[in-house]
Amino acid sequence: MALDDVDRIMAIMATAFDPDFGEAWNRRQVEDALTLGSCHYSLVGADGQLPSTEEAAAGFWMSRTGFEEEELLLIAVVPQARCTGLGLRLLETLRNAAARRGARRLLLEMRRGNPAESLYRRFGFYSIGERREYYRTPGGDRLDAITFACDIKASDATTPKH
Predict the structure, then answer these.
(1) For the segment 69-103, what is each residue's pLDDT rounded down to a tens digit?
(2) Largest CB tally within 10 Å, which of 15, 63, 111, 130?
(3) Mind listing the domains of the chain with CATH numbers?
(4) Rounded distance, CA 111 to CA 44, Å?
């Protein structure tokens, strides 16, 4: 894990997450997660490929590997690069990497009303449960969490295309 990658993740997070919901992680949380052997990440440039060390990243994902499952912890695309296919590209790279690590399904949890829900459903995620009033906004409101799963086929364990 190069420090410049954490810088790039933090730069994306600073613009991609709505502060009204308190979903962005702080630098310490990101660094701590990435020091665990079970957490992984990937960056994407505006062109959908891995960004060079000289360019800013336009999106990232971070996940945690468990037994035959991979949990998507964070995914983000900078606002100016949304609706360009980068979200789907990130989910594809996550699925392929998770499949290579032996995962049979992806999991994620999101707050009800998150606009990314349509992206997740388009990718093949389906709802498997909910937690009533699980999230608390910085303003004190309580929001439900929805848990989603997406099945992974063995053929998804392809070599990355970037």
Answers:
(1) 999 999 999 999 888 889 999 999 999 999 999 99
(2) 63
(3) 3-156 (3.40.630.30)
(4) 24
